[in-house]
Amino acid sequence: MLRPGWTEHVMRAAITGLGAVTLVACGTLSGGSAAAPPGAAAVTADVPSTETRATYDGIVARLRAGDPAAQGKLETFSAAHPDLAGPLLNLGLVRARSGDDAGAQDLLRRATQVCNQCGTAWNQLGVLHRQHGRFADAEQAYLRAIALESGYAPAYYNLAVLYELYLPRPEQALENYERFLQLDGTADGSQDVEKWVADLRRRISTTATTARADGST
């Protein structure tokens, strides 16, 4: 089971039932990320114009507010701006919320193709894989996010959760929690992560001691 009060890092600040509809925009060849605290994620990059950005911001605000017409507006916007990954990513999150796994996966994969330097899209794809029990695929997606953006804290957190609770690989979970704390140790909830790190260290140490006593190593 997941830690009390926590789901995957990027999915918490959100549309009810799924997690964050994150405000993400990036161009075909550009992209960057700012590590966000648990419950938030953002990628900032060039967009065609201030007017375009304002239009997008307005649509996302309506989406967050639960406007039933917002999804259609976002689909129209995305069709008009196929070089932006943000609309694809947010549409993928909406599809995931509605239970359309195939549609969500397709949109998230398109986002990774449009923005070939954005770890956020791969991170979200990993979350989708994890939710549907595709743990090996989730691992590869998180690792891809980290390869693209080595300072993107949410991917380390999600990978640590995957290694601790689903695969499980406690040593690798510990390594990724520690990296998350290095990058984002002041985030809300980081004190919980510190407790988990201490607990993992104890468990790993106990396992090693028991193995030595049994002559297993």
Describe the SSE topology.
Elements: E1 33-34, E2 42-43, H1 50-64, H2 70-80, H3 85-97, H4 101-114, H5 119-131, H6 135-148, H7 153-166, H8 170-184, H9 190-213
Task: Summarize the entry for a quick read.
The chain has helices at 50-64, 70-80, 85-97, 101-114, 119-131, 135-148, 153-166, 170-184, 190-213; strands at 33-34, 42-43.
Structure explained in plain terms:
This protein has 217 residues and is mainly α. The chain has nine helices and two strands. A two-stranded antiparallel ribbon has the order 1-2. Strand 1 and strand 2 form a beta hairpin.
List keywords for this structure.
217 residues, mainly alpha, disordered N terminus
**Largest sheet features:** 2 strands, antiparallel
Q: Which overall shape is indicated by the principal axes computed on the Cα atoms?
A: elongated
How many whole angstroms does the radius of gyration measure?
A: 18 Å
- Give me the strand/helix succession: EEHHHHHHHHH
Q: How far is the N terminus from the C terminus?
A: 30 Å
Number of H- or I-type helical stretches: 9
**Structural class, from helix and strand content?**
mainly alpha
Q: How much β-strand is present in the residues?
A: under 5%
Overall mean pLDDT stands at: 79
Strand order of the largest sheet: 1-2
Helix content: 55-70%
Number of strands: 2
Model regions low in confidence, pLDDT < 50 over at least 5 residues: 1-47
